[in-house]
Amino acid sequence: MSRRNKEELPHSLLHAILLVATLVTVYPILWVLTIALSGKQSLAIADLPATPAVSDRLRAVIPWPESISLANFRSLFTDQPFTRWLINSVTVSGGSSSAVVIHDGALTTSNSRAPTPQPEAWRSTVPPSARAMIW
Question: Which domain holds residue 134?
């Protein structure tokens, strides 16, 4: 059996760090889903009484709506020009992606024909856009 390296973190500490990082990452996503599914236009998902108990305070922090409603989604598709916004976003992202592909294609072609002091392995592993920033 091999001994553990002294520089390694204990597994329990590593798992605790990963758990905290996961919670910090997922918590805002849960808030977005909660606001979307609450049917309200408010960030307050729980009404606290005048003298809240610990469970009431915990309820105000845990991101989950009291009742699930699709009213916000209905409003998005009926009251807002969502399809226009979607078409605009697809047009801009498609145009910028096409520009990057054309630019990188031209750059790859010119870089493959240009003499360079770097070895061939470096040339094949570094993306053309990164090489353009270096050169």
Answer: 81-135
